Structures are given as structure tokens and as C-alpha cells.
Known about the structure:
Two copies of one chain form a homodimer. Chain A is mostly helical. The first copy, chain A, has twelve helices and no strands. Chain A has a domain at 82-231: Tetracycline Repressor, domain 2, CATH 1.10.357. In chain A, helix 4 packs across helix 5 (93-110), helix 4 (59-76) runs parallel beside helix 7 and helix 5 (93-110) packs antiparallel against helix 12 (213-231). The longest helix of chain A is centred in the last third of the chain and has 26 residues, at 148-173. Residues 1-12 and 80-87 of chain A have low confidence and may be disordered. At the A-B interface, helix 6, helix 7, helix 8, helix 10 and helix 12 of A face helix 6, helix 7, helix 8, helix 10 and helix 12 of B. The first copy, chain A, binds a DNA duplex through helix 2 and helix 3.
Amino acid sequence: MATRTGRSQRRTEALSRERIVEAAVELLDTAGEGGLTFRALTERLATGHGAIYWHVANKGELLAAATDAVIAAALAVEPAGSAGSTGSADSTPQERVRAVASGLFDTIDEHPWVAAQLTASSLQVTTPRIFESVGRQVRALGVPEGSWFTAASVLVEYILGAAAQNAANARALGPDANRAEFLDAVSNAWEELDPDDYPFTRAVAEQLRAHDDREQFLAGIDLVLAGITALHPPRG
Amino acid sequence: MATRTGRSQRRTEALSRERIVEAAVELLDTAGEGGLTFRALTERLATGHGAIYWHVANKGELLAAATDAVIAAALAVEPAGSAGSTGSADSTPQERVRAVASGLFDTIDEHPWVAAQLTASSLQVTTPRIFESVGRQVRALGVPEGSWFTAASVLVEYILGAAAQNAANARALGPDANRAEFLDAVSNAWEELDPDDYPFTRAVAEQLRAHDDREQFLAGIDLVLAGITALHPPRG
DNA sequence: TTCCATTATGGAGCGCCGTTCCAGTCCTGG
DNA sequence: CCAGGACTGGAACGGCGCTCCATAATGGAA
Lengths: 236, 236
């Protein structure tokens, strides 16, 4: 299966699965999810369809590979330590959860197409990476083993859900346009909703206008962490 | 713009935006996200493309309308009350959050395509409905007004994130196949991961195999609620 | 060195998609 | 009764993912 061990390049510059995935990520970043096309890829790599299909089975596999590459890079930034569990260093588990979550949030903010892909293939290849990074900190928090799966799942689901929605907003806006204007428009729309049907939404319209996405996201992380601590006190 | 007030039907049975959306939902349910095609819709409604495009601008608008219809139905099941805030009745705010969340979870489980659509158009038309339903209970929980937006956002983001991931698993599985077999296969895959790289994931593989999606989801809701209560004690 | 199976390439083309265009039909108000 | 707006449906366009296949480059065997 496409071993290619140590083979030197052929013609111009050997086409490899790596180069294809790299080009795919660039295309997705610059042109959005709809921008990844085998035709565009063909042009960018100066080759034909068939050559690409030799390395990659189909578009789905290419998307999965691109997602995995981006997420792996995001999680590699962490110190990660060796096989160690607690990570000895000078940070609390809470801080380390925030760090992992922040990294994922920023990465998905930079590559909005990742969000759709991640939620579309949940228990597949990429998710264990995320699950493991988050789960180690859950364990370090002192959660009893019987609740590990639940606590880690909630964290991962919240992280991916919040990041996905944030990315969707960024995507709906376009890469350049003015975020403040967009928030202002949505906030105004909320304020003009029917007062009988939407009292709460109208009441928080102002908070929507003023909020900061990242801050909001980290506040959510803290809230989930507080829930974990409340249900599983550190020294039970 | 397409008033059609009280017009009696024309030929066979007047084509209406309502009938189109209804057919679209049925197609999405039976054939998946890829099953919604203007050609399939044409055939099912015994008409031509142009007729559909007269009522609906494009596929995106049709998807949004279908999503809105399904979500509106899901939230309408709630007692909803009048404009009232607390909902007087015999249930606690926590129980009412669980009820709203359950309804959304079940609906997204029944119509998996809704998840992708919801996260793809976050601050658009449909979301305020959900936000309002959840937000009213947040208010009833006694959360201080300055934290309403944060608390409601976290709940909505978790609900949509978790439901989306659950729906993705259901979709990856196909409508018929065996859930237990699928979980077993993933669990086995997790157990065969590298012990050095994935100690936590391996440790919870057994919990993954045994878990119940709905129970897991509600445990997450409880965890988030516990976090809200911890950070905003009922009587501050 | 010669030869050939393997590995790798890229172009032609198929079927399907969303969407546009437009000629035509139906219905209603004047 | 007829003009004109409301509505229909078929033809056609460009672009998509993907398959097929003739061919070129390659490295090991002879």
C-alpha cells in the first residue's frame, strides 16, 4: 500500500500524499470548504485527476486527512510530556484544560472548515487524539474512574460544539468583513424580535453585541470545569 | 411576494412552499443529506425545477426552511406557557432545561441532517428559538443578569455540540445497522491504540462500549447545570 | 546492460448536481 | 371576455466527483 520508502523523486517533484494534503489544506483555508475541488487541486499541483486518485481514495478521505493533519499540529503544540499522566509541571489541571481548549479553539478559528469535518466524523480517527488530550487532564482533576468517560465527553462535546458555532459565524461573515458590524446587525435583529415570544433573547441582545468570542468560550470551559468539580469534589 | 391568500387549488394540488418544505424533510429523513436533490424533489412533487424555484430561492434557503420547521415543531411540544417567565408549574428550572434538551436531542436523533445545518448557520433565524427556550430556564435558575448570555450560550453550545456528534455517529452507522456492533468495533479499536500515546482513551474504551447515548447526554446537561449553580449560587 | 512488472501519471469522458431561462398555461379582476 | 399577473415544467449550461485507460518513469531480476 504505497510504501514509497526512501524513494527519490521522479519527474519534477514526486507527487505524494503529503503534498496533496498540504495543498488541500491551503485551498480550504483560502477558498473555503467549497474551494476544495479536484480540478483546483489538479491545477495547483500541475497534474491530472488520476494522479491524485492514486494517492487518495476519494474526497472524503482527503478531507479527513486534512482535518487530521491540522488537529495533530494543534495538539502537538502542547508539552504533551511523555506517557506521564499528571504532567508534573507548574500548572494545574484546570489550566491545562484551558490550554488544550484554547489551542483547539484558535485552530478551528483559523481553519473553519475543520469544525464541520470534526462533527461529521465523530468517533473516527481524529477524535481519539482530542479525547486523549482532554481526558488526561480529567484524570488529573481527580474525577473517579467511573466518571472519566462522561466528564471527558462533556468537555470534548462542548469544545467542539462551541468552536463549531464560532467557526460558522466566522464563515457566514467572510474572511475579511467587519465582525463588529455583523454582531451589531444580529444584535439589532434580536432587539426587534416579538417581545412576547422572545423576552430573554431581547434582554441579552446587548450582551451579544459586547461579547468577545474567545472570552466567552473560556468562560464556558470554566463553567464546565466548575460542574465537574462540584459533582466530583477533588478529595472524595 | 407570493401572498396566495385563500386561493383555491389549481390543477392537481397547488404547489406551495409548505408542501415543498414538507417533501424536503421527508427526503432528508429517508435518503440522508445527500438525498435532497431538486431532481428528486421534482419527481416526488410531480412537477419541474422551475416550479420549485418559484417558491424557493435556492437549496440553502430550502434547507434552512426545513431545519426551522423541524426545530419549531420540537420546541412547540414544550408547554411554552404565555409570555410568562418562570413557568409556574410543578417543575424545577433544572427539570425544564432537561426537558428542552431532551426534546432537541431526540429531534436531532430523528433528523440527523438538522445538526449539520444548525451548526452551519449559528446566529441565523432558527437559533433564537432555541436560545429563548433555554434562556428562560437560565433566568429561572437565578443566574444574575450579567451572566445570562454566557450561561445560556454554554447550554445551547453543549446541547447542539453533543447532539451533532451523536447524530454524526448515527449517520456514519446507517439507519438500520446494529449500534452495539458499531460501539463494539470502535471500543476494540480504542483498546488497540498505542499504550504510550493513548493511556486514557484505552482506559475508557470499556465505558464507551457500555454507555447509553441519551443517558450520557443528560449526564452532561446535569454537569453543566451543576457548573452554573456552583458559579451562581441560587441565593447570592 | 537489458527487460519487464510495478508504480505513477494525466487526459477524456460519464453521470449527476444546482441553477437559469423561457415558452407556455392557468386563473382572476376589470 | 380578455389582458396580465401567477404559476408551471422542460431544455440546457457549467461545474462537480469520479472512473477508465493509454502511457511514462522506475528499480530489481536476468
